[in-house]
From TrEMBL:
Key words, A-Z: DNA replication, DNA-directed DNA polymerase, Nucleotidyltransferase, Transferase
GO cellular component entries: DNA polymerase III complex
Domain DNA polymerase III delta subunit C-terminal: 208-319
UniProt name for this protein: DNA polymerase III subunit delta'
GO annotation, biological process: DNA-templated DNA replication
The reaction(s) this protein catalyses: DNA(n) + a 2'-deoxyribonucleoside 5'-triphosphate = DNA(n+1) + diphosphate
InterPro entries tied to this protein: DNA_pol_HolB, DNA_pol_III_delta_C, DNA_Rep/Repair_Clamp_Loader, P-loop_NTPase
Enzyme class name: transferase
Gene Ontology molecular functions: 3'-5' exonuclease activity; DNA binding; DNA-directed DNA polymerase activity
EC number(s) stated in the UniProt entry for this protein: 2.7.7.7
Length: 324
């Protein structure tokens, strides 16, 4: 179990042991925090044949019984998972799940359904699930996972026991990342919005160096405007690259306002932030606001198609004019 989830794990096991876990549980929190891993462990505890015997005071899965071995092999007949890997979760998938849950447990120890990325359920799918969430057949437990619970129907949320997994403190995450053989930093954690698993993948892929190089190129645009096209292409590679730039401008604005550098989001790019801070708070504030509007426009996914290159090119041209 990830160190930042251990307290939640013990609390959930206590609910299982005291028979206080609801029929429907909604695990919510940012992407890459380990919601799926926690749900999988909880499903194993619910189906374990020895989890609630008198000798097992913790209620944790024994890892040795037939049920635990079947889960490890990935073929437990009473564990049903909808992965959320598809674009949406349709009503047919939910109806099929309900039909399976209405059947008797094969091993006679309850049934568990896990719905990953539950916010992908269509309205019809969500409505079809309501009755089962409220009164599931037999000993069925439904575990819903979502990084965007606000997108779920209110009627779904109200029928679930909601469990928030907050962004963990860096003091828990940074040592864990170092234990994975990585060289973590608070800046790397910040650009991944505090997500431990996303930060692990980011560092493993070597993306941190790409961030520093791209932001260096951006700051040098005033002296090397001919690199504008290269910088534009780099910022368009991934949506998160614009977040990097947003955080850099935010740090520069903080320094321009005379605030302490202790709270810089990209502490390893303080030199770049100080260079930009010389532009003054007014110009930085204006540029930051326009960049935020641009990011929101590109992420909206609604309305007329947006030419990202054209929009960002205009922002960069305005930036060059602004800093001269």
């Amino acid at each position: 179990m990830y160190p930042w989830l251990k307290t939640h794990w013990q609390q959930l096991l206590t609910l299982v042991r005291q028979d206080q876990l609801g029929h429907g549980l909604l695990l919510k929190g940012v992407e890459g925090i380990g919601k799926g891993e926690l749900a999988a462990a909880l499903a194993k505890a619910l189906l374990c044949q020895h989890a609630n015997v008198a000798e097992n005071e913790q209620g944790a899965p024994c890892e040795h019984c037939h049920s635990c071995q079947l889960i490890k092999a990935g073929n437990h007949p009473d564990l049903h998972v909808i992965t959320g890997s598809q674009r949406s979760i349709g009503v047919d998938a939910i109806r099929q799940l309900i039909q399976v849950l209405n059947e008797s447990a094969r091993l006679g120890h309850g049934k568990v359904a896990v719905i990953e990325q539950a916010e992908k359920m269509t309205e019809a799918a969500a409505n079809a699930l309501l009755k089962t969430l409220e009164e599931p057949a037999g000993e069925a437990t439904l575990l819903l996972i979502s990084a965007h619970p606000e997108r779920l129907l209110p009627t779904i949320r109200s029928r679930c026991q909601q469990w928030l997994l907050p962004v963990p403190e860096p003091d828990l995450v940074l040592p864990w990342l170092a234990g994975q053989g990585l060289e973590p930093s608070l800046a790397a954690l910040n650009v991944n919005q505090g997500s431990p698993l996303n930060t692990r993948d980011y560092l493993t892929a070597g993306t941190d160096q790409r961030r520093r190089d791209l932001l260096q190129q951006f700051v040098e645009l005033a002296r090397q405007p001919r690199t504008l096209t290269e910088v534009q292409s780099g910022l368009l590679e991934q949506p998160v690259h614009l977040l990097w730039l947003q955080l850099l401008l935010q740090d520069a604005l903080q320094l321009a306002l005379g605030l302490s550098p202790a709270g810089l989001r990209l502490s390893d790019s303080e030199t770049l932030s100080r260079t930009l801070s010389q532009l003054g708070p007014d110009r930085l504030h204006q540029a930051q606001n326009r960049l935020l509007q641009l990011r929101q426009t590109l992420q909206s996914g609604t309305g007329r198609p947006v030419n990202a290159g054209l929009q960002l090119g205009q922002w960069l041209n305005d930036w060059l004019i602004n800093i001269r």
